[in-house]
Structures are given as C-alpha cells and as structure tokens.
Amino acid sequence: MKSIYKDKYYNHFSKKEDKEVPFLFKDQNFMMRFVTTLPGYIFDENSLTIIYFKKGSGQLCWRDKNAKIDDDKFIIANPSSGWEYINNEEKYIDVLSFAISDHFRKQFNFYVNSPQIQLLDTPFDTLKEEYFFIESPLSTQYYSSGKLLDQIHTISSQAEYEFLSPEELTIEVLQSLYKEQTNGYKIANKIKAKKNSTKLETLKRLLIVRDFIHDNIGDKLSLDLLSNISSLSKFHLYSSFKTVFGKTPHQYINWLRLSKAKHYILKGDFTASEIALILGFSDLPSFSKLFKKAYGVSPSNFNINE
C-alpha cells in the first residue's frame, strides 16, 4: 500500500506529522490522515468523530455495542463516554478521520438551527442541542457525505491539499452529514413505532440491508437472507423496507439490477447473456422479459433505440 502517509499520522489542522498515534482531545479539532498498522486506539469521552476507512478492517466498540469496519466504509461516533478501535489482524489501514471539538460542533448546531435574524444578531453563540448520527458502517459510494469523504481522501495525496483549509473541509463534511441526517429523520418518522430510538434503530438496520443489496446484487438475495442480515423478522423487514424505500425488497432488487443492466448495455462492454449472469438473473429469458417490461424494448434493441 503505497502512500505519502505510510507509517505516519498527519494532522491537517496542526500541519504536523508523528510516527506515533497522537492523543485526541475533546476541545481540539483534528483532521487525520494515516496509513499504518494501528492495532488499536481508545478515545475516552470522545468528541464527534468521523472515520473513513479507504482500506482496512477492524471493529469500533462502544460500551454497549460494536460495529465491524471494512474497505470503503465510513462511520460516525457521537459524543459519548468513549469508543475503542480494534484491529486484530494488524494489517495496514488507510484512514481519513475527523475529531470535531465540542465547541466547534455547538457553533455548527447554532448555525443550522437558528433563524437568520439570530445568526446576524448573535453570530458567535453556541447551541447545546445534540444530533444523533446513525452509528453504523456506511458504504461511501451510496451517500453524498461518503462520496465527499472519498474526494477529500483523494485530494489529501495531492500537492493542493497543503493549501486547503481544514476548518472549511470540516464544515463541508458536517453540512453534508447534517443534510443526510435530516433526511434520515424524516424517513425514520414513516416507520411505525412509538419511540424515536426504535424508529432510528429500524432505519439503521434497513440501511444495512440496502447497502448489502448494492454490494451483492449479483448474488441470490432471498428475504430470509436479508432478514438475517438486518436482524429483523422477514415480516417486519418487508413492511418497513416498503415504507421507507417505496418498494419491497424484491422490487428494489429487480429495480437495481435493471438500472445496472441499462448502464452496462449503454457502455457496450458485455452481451445480454453476460449481463444477466453478472447481475444474478435466473436466465436470459427472465432478464429480457423484465427489461422489456421496464423499458419497453428488449436488451438487444435498447442500445439501438437510445
């Protein structure tokens, strides 16, 4: 794994690099880049933390739960009593991470929750209101905030990175996360449950299922399998998935496969038979029938009509 950050920890806020992993503090902002064999790390009384694993794996553990991390995943840790990262394999991990001070976060909270007149009258106020970010590994390619993190990760290896403001990059990431989180709350409110915490937990499990579908679209995806992935009964999964995404799991899988099939056909790299195999259709006739029903023409005629 070749990188200018190999075996070092670089903090873009301080413009300093260390051979040893630095201590993070709640009252300071950090924007770290590193490619190391970090075996583990503990952040007691942590501030809001955003971690993007470009490469690498491990577990992020809280007092009452843990989350498995894989390549191209990002995860958010809300301010809490602390978290611990464990890398049992001790392989190299390629990471971009943000630790956002409580004061900076409260200033941002004030900005996004205050009317315009208040922003003009008391621009430097803070707001203690907390946001509950979903603490679950998310695939970068399926979320705008994940794509932004990947862009920043790419830029961090270029010469221009030195001249970019870490504060402005942090604000961009916070704004993107806040926008997605607001949409998440709206979506969660559709779920039938009395407690908001139950709605958010259900949404988190549905997002895990959706990401799993995207990552394994060429495999056989049964309702029982997705039920096991989400730790929801298939009846609960079916109903909640349809409520949140507007399609049943089976309908969503077919929609995604046909969308990808359309993309592959337009690129012209594969035959219809190859596309059917790649995307997990049972056979070519089934693929052709579904494709024609969705787009009005057969796969073989689609590119010509386009």
TrEMBL record:
PROSITE patterns: HTH_ARAC_FAMILY_2. Pfam families: HTH_18 (PF12833). Residues 207-305 form the HTH araC/xylS-type domain. GO terms for molecular function: DNA-binding transcription factor activity; sequence-specific DNA binding. InterPro entries: Homeodomain-like_sf (IPR009057), HTH_AraC (IPR018060), Tscrpt_reg_AraC-type_HTH (IPR020449). The keyword Transcription regulation applies. Keywords: DNA-binding, Transcription, Transcription regulation. This is Helix-turn-helix domain-containing protein. It comes from Aquimarina algicola. The lineage of its organism: Bacteria, Pseudomonadati, Bacteroidota, Flavobacteriia, Flavobacteriales.
